[in-house]
């Protein structure tokens, strides 16, 4: 918790353009105190937390990193309320792999799980897939809708929480980029089982998840909460054809603080074998 809090203070302070001195002045503390909070040497006094959160424009829950744990709100809700696209509008590389492996030469149904502001969902719709997409963030979904309207493509967008939403219809492609680490580990088997049962024969699961690596320190954003074990994602698809699986590391600045992630990427095809 201490690491998340220190990262968040620094992140929100920088996003508002405050120096440590400016934040310290607003709170009536010394800039050394702010510096120590941000390096994790000390934590702010509890009585200061409401003021600190208000000054940084976030809730106390979010400042402490609890917002995402509740599973009811998105860590990115406030970022998504801004006009600019937090994740940009360029589709992720994994979209191209889907396109290569299962081009929409016939009507293909695709579900984007945790679509955020819709950059990948809109790309797929532009390519001709019949796209549905969900996320927990109202602000993200609003932006995804506007993005689809602007691109003049149909995307069925709905709000759902990964934790309790289960698929009841089949898709040709289940796609999810940077989202499945929000699933609580105790729900993983059940949810992955549900997902696998809802991919048509010949269809694909294309998933990108953050994984734990001993040499990479926890990220200052909320991506570290339920990291997968390295390689764990692949094991769920041992009875499908693995079209692609890889592990890689990359630098990220999404929180305003440079950090590194490790991730696994999987594209697996349901070849219809029932064991
Ligand atoms: C790292 S972002 C990725 C967004 C998008 N896939 C992209 O690549 O641009 C993670 C997304 O997961 C969503 N999310 C987090 N917890 C969720 C939950 N319990 N149910 C549904 N979506 C969730 C967040 O709102 C956020 O949009």
Could you characterize the architecture of this molecule?
There is one protein chain. The chain has helices at residues 2-15, 20-27, 31-39, 49-56, 60-64, 77-81, 93-101, 119-127, 138-151, 185-197, 232-235; strands at residues 109-113, 130-135, 155-159, 171-177, 199-211, 241-252, 259-269. It has 275 residues and is of the alpha/beta class. The longest helix has 14 residues, at 2-15. A seven-stranded mixed β-sheet has the order 3-2-1-4-5-7-6. Helices cover 36% and strands 21% of the residues. The protein contains eleven helices and seven strands. It has two domains: 2-66, lambda repressor-like DNA-binding domains (434 Repressor (Amino-terminal Domain), Orthogonal Bundle), CATH 1.10.260.40; 93-269, Vaccinia Virus protein VP39 (Rossmann fold, 3-Layer(aba) Sandwich). Bound molecules: S-adenosylmethionine. The site of S-adenosylmethionine (SAM) has 21 residues, from helix 8.
